[in-house]
Each structure stands twice: as structure tokens, then as C-alpha cells.
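Sequence only, no structure available. Ideas?
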Amino acid sequence: MAALVSGVTETMLGLTFVPDGTKAHHALSWRTAVLPIAGQRPLTVGLSSDEHSCRRLSAAMFACGPDEVDQSMMNDALCELVNMTAGLLKSMLGLNQALGLPRVLSGPKVPAVPSASSQVIVLKADALGLALWIYEGISSIE
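Reply:
I predicted one. C-alpha cells follow.
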């Protein structure tokens, strides 16, 4: 999964994802985008970030300086990366299921990044404070 996601993000953003076995991601609880894929094989895709990394991701996506990034650009960047991942996942698994709409959570509503398990894949960006996670089922945080 890391190679699949990185195949897109490396080209577009110079960003590579690797599997992450870390149990604690407390620093990445600033903002999270979550997208459900309901259906016969329900999945949830999430992307959690700290503020600095979200600003850098947004600047790369919008081809501007980090100081030019506003809150809506940060939300859009998180949602776009979650959408791209969900689309890749849907295609790779041959799912005939509609993608839900991404939802951005911030402040006290931000969930903790789930720990990797048999139901959860967690990937981390190699150069930024980003955790991309895929949960088998519709996450209760959605």
C-alpha cells in the first residue's frame, strides 16, 4: 500500500509513505481528514497531521509558499490526499462502492491515529508529520 500511495505522492509532491508501526501519534492530532467507503467491504481512509506538516503539504499541492497557505487550503490538501488514496484503494481492490465525502476534523474532535493492526494499515510520510491510515470498517470517528 505504501508503494501504491507513494507512486502518486512522490511524483506530485515529492512525498514518500512508508509502513508505520509506531503506537503513539499524539503530535499528529492537529487536523484529520476522514473518508468512508460504505458498502459490502466498508473501509475508512484517514489522514492526520500536525500544523507545520499540513502547511507544507498544502504549499506543495498549491505551488505556493507556506506563508501563503490559509485554513481552507489546508483542509483541501488533506481532503485531496484522502480522496486520491481512497480512489487508489477502490481501484486496487476492485470495489464497486461509492466513495463518501471527506470530512475534516480539528480541535477537540480530532481522533487519535489508530494503531496498526489486522484491521488498520498506518503509513507515515518520510519527511513530514503525516499519518495516512486505512481502517477496515466504517470508523466510529466518522
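The first strand starts at residue 17 and ends at 19.
Hope that gets you unstuck.
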